[in-house]
Amino acid sequence: MAEGRNLAVRMVSPDGVIWEGPSPFVVLPALDGEIGIAPGHAPLIVRLGAGEARIHAGSGVLSFILSGGFLEVLGDRVHVIVDRAETPGTVDVEAAREALRALDAPRIRDVDRHEEDLQARRLAQARLKAAAPKKAPGGY
């Protein structure tokens, strides 16, 4: 990572700008796992999946729960276009638990819905993880 450099990050949804600002590092949920972006990253276009986005900003980390979208990296500019983004404080924990229970319930599975079920599971898990109380650094 280039010391002292920042990315110019812009996250938008159909409703408008969700977050915009400088960041030395971002982590986003790609379809097949997380991807980390730092200054100097190669140009990239990636389809995003459901999961938690973490944007390092100031002295902390901002967290958003994404339901899918696209990422474009060009130079030190990062554009994140999402279907929807939630903050941890807006998560309906019981609805997320119910979504996981429904996905775990025995049922006849439609093979054509496998990817949709997988993304729904990742979204529910990300919501629960983001809404969980955070432990202090070094705390167990």
Short description:
The protein is an alpha+beta fold.
Low-pLDDT stretches are: none
Q: Which of globular, elongated, flat, extended, rod-shaped describes the shape?
A: globular
CATH class of the largest domain: Mainly Beta
Total helical elements = 2
The overall average pLDDT, rounded, is 85
CATH fold call of the largest domain: ATP Synthase, domain 1
The beta-strand count equals: 10
Oligomeric description of these chains: single chain
Helix and strand sequence: EEEEEEEEEEHH
* CATH architecture group name of the largest domain: Sandwich
CATH homologous superfamily (4th level) name of the largest domain: F0F1 ATP synthase delta/epsilon subunit, N-terminal
Distance between the termini: 30 Å
Helix content: 10-25%
Strand content: 35-45%
Explain what this protein looks like in three dimensions.
By secondary structure, this protein is an alpha+beta fold. It has helices at 93-104, 114-131, and strands at residues 7-13, 16-23, 25-30, 33-37, 44-48, 51-57, 60-66, 69-74, 77-82, 85-86. It has 2 domains: 7-86, ATP Synthase, domain 1 (Sandwich); 89-131. The chain contains 2 helices and 10 strands, in the order E-E-E-E-E-E-E-E-E-E-H-H. Strands 2-1-9-8-5 form a 5-stranded mixed β-sheet, with no helix packed on it. A 5-stranded antiparallel β-sheet has the order 4-3-6-7-10. Helix 1 (93-104) packs antiparallel against helix 2 (114-131). The two termini are 30 Å apart. The model has no long low-confidence stretch (mean pLDDT 85).
